[in-house]
Amino acid sequence: xxxxxxxxxxxxxVIILPMVxxxxxxxxxxxxLAGEMQVALMFVAALTFFTYLFVGCxxxxxxxxxxxxxxxxxxxELKDFIEKEKFNRFxxxxxxxxxxxxxxxxxxxxxxxxxxxxxxxxxxxxNKSLFSPFTVIGIITENGEAxxxxxxxxxxxDQVTLKLKKEFPEFRCDVQILKEAxxxxxxxxxxxxxxxxxxxxxxxxxxxxx
Length: 210
Known about the structure:
The chain is an alpha+beta fold. The protein contains 7 helices and 7 strands, in the order αααβββββββαααα.
């Protein structure tokens, strides 16, 4: 379930896209010199698009899967831990925003992010906004991170959280945590507390029972 960062497709794109961008820049220059402003605008739009593609390929959102563990584990170390695990799939289909995720004895794999089960603090369900008909459900961790899970109708939120609580003991829907988790300072405090409690890699591995 760990995806390769540098695939042949990505490598080819990083080689080819600069050539395309160079051609577009040259063409844009010629169009401007010729006074063809409409053509120049077309080249500007194309140049913007291909530059965006190049940046996305050359600087991928690599290691997004490491959002929770990046302070303690390298990509290789995470990969080694994950390869030892046997994952099952949890599915929630009968809601307005169906979702699924994978879980093993020691990990959750949610929205491309690996979360050690031992440091899951709780799940939260909060209104998207004051007048929104939707509730956002996410997982928060002891080290002050949050992973989006789903956005469901308000009347479905209890159904989702009850099923999650039934399946996974980590999810308690603690009212006190919910009250505090709507503030940014809560996450900053959690990050500091966890960093003080778990200062290095070996303590993290032991604490998470990996």
